[in-house]
């Protein structure tokens, strides 16, 4: 009778340990899948961050007195461009090779008093 109780107790312990091991495996699998999904989602989102590209250049005179800042478009864009920001918040796409654009950049960097 003593041997039967011991084997049942051993069986319960083994079953319990096996169940715990299975739970840990499932938890690890879920964590790995979640990590992979989050990494993929973050990478997909990162491709669009800061990707404002100019499709065409502004053809008129650049309103130098209304410019407050400028920045270059992303290297991922098919066309190199300088984007000027006006006092009203409007964005003007310009050709970085144009001499008027280079002058406007200098004036925005070093405004006259």
UniProtKB/TrEMBL annotation:
Q: Name one GO molecular function term.
A: chemokine activity
Question: Where is this protein chiefly located?
Answer: secreted
Superkingdom assignment: Eukaryota
The signal sequence is: 1-43
SMART domains linked to this entry: SCY
User: Where, subcellularly, is it found?
Assistant: Secreted
Report the protein name in the record.
C-C motif chemokine
